[in-house]
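Entry for the shared binder. Reason: the reviewer on the internal report wants the predicted structure included alongside the sequence.
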Amino acid sequence: MSASPPHPQAPPVVPAQLRVRDTRSRSPALAAILSMMPGLGQVYVGYYQRGFVHAAVVASLITILASHTVERLSPLFGLFMTFFWLYNIIDAARRASLYNDALAGNPSIELPEDFKTPGIRGSVFGGIALIVAGFILLLNTRFGVSLDWVEQWWPVAPMIFGVYLLVRALQERRASQSNDSR
């Protein structure tokens, strides 16, 4: 008599408490706690560039608020810093959760990309914005031109950026419609 080959058995069901945790996973709670020091939670999850940018933004805002050169705009900068600091904490926890889901093999989860470093192409809008900001600051520091007008006219900057985004969206919509009609 020949022995029949053994039947393959289903792997045993392991209770959730006994499952081995992937050593590459990151704790969302720890990422959030670390991000109380801006950028540290992002670095913990592996988004180094984003973490350093977050730290630089908060450090810049603290420096601006401590300089007393923009006293009239202090509430605006303080509000932005508070929002950005809280965003930083939530972002770190969210990225840790998404990272863990991607490690678990969830195919519907795409890890968010880190900041892309600017290529050689650059950015026309970003370049113009930096040139204008630098020129205004140079007028203030080198030639003593008052920045009091910034307090009244700063809302124009987000309006210009909004127009830029609107124009870009319309251009992309037209391009996608022309590609669909081909």
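Summary line for the report: The mean pLDDT is 80.
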